[in-house]
Design a protein that fits this description.
CATH architecture: 3-Layer(aba) Sandwich
Number of domains: 1
Helix content: 25-40%
Number of helices: 6
Shape: globular
Distance between the termini: 9 Å
Strand content: 35-45%
Number of strands: 13
Length: 186
């Protein structure tokens, strides 16, 4: 069972649909008791870093996420969900993140149109992005995309924490393969 965290900043229906297509049991929840019982947690996300962290705090979810991470549950952050895995974000004002990955998230430094929206290439194929903010480069970045002359961390991973800046649930076969591999590792 996978817990898809319900913190009012997500495209949860497309994430749940992808889980159904992959024949993986998933539940949308913010119930700490349910979250503690799963091996896999997905933090979906569309919106701003500040609002995401405020909602996680208001719903009392940060403690259970920290506890689950410490106990070895695998955590996957998608788009904004990936960004909040980092220490700090600057969207909507400077805000502390979950701190599972070192580094900050800030506006993409490009003169090209923002948000970076549409299909872009990573080593395994084309995936779908919608974002204006990006994580800093760290040793935890394992895949990159390029937009407007900027190298964008597309996939990050450290221990039991993984994040995709793009939307694997909207990225066809490439995204399905990424999520399928992650789910098979649970």
């Amino acid at each position: 069972m996978i817990a898809v965290i319900d913190y009012n900043v997500g495209n949860v229906s497309s994430v749940l649909n992808m889980c159904r297509r992959l024949d993986v049991a998933a539940a949308l929840t913010r119930d700490p008791d349910k979250i503690k019982k799963v091996n896999g947690i997905i933090l979906p996300g569309v919106g701003s870093f500040h609002v995401a962290m405020r909602n996680l705090t208001e719903f009392g979810l940060i403690g259970v996420l920290n506890e689950s991470k410490t106990k070895g549950a695998k955590i996957m952050g998608i788009c904004l969900g990936m960004q909040i895995l980092f220490e700090k974000g600057f969207e909507g004002g400077e805000t502390a993140g979950l701190g599972y990955l070192k580094g900050n998230v800030d506006l993409i430094k490009t003169t090209d149109k923002l948000p970076h929206m549409g299909w872009n290439n990573i080593s395994t194929g084309d995936v779908y992005f919608v974002h204006s903010y990006m994580a800093e480069y760290t040793d935890d970045c394992i895949e990159f995309a390029e937009y407007g002359g900027v190298k964008i961390p597309a996939i990050v991973q450290k221990d039991n924490v993984m994040g995709c800046q793009f939307h694997p649930e909207k990225s066809g076969k490439v995204g399905e393969e990424i999520l399928s591999k992650w789910m098979a590792s649970l």
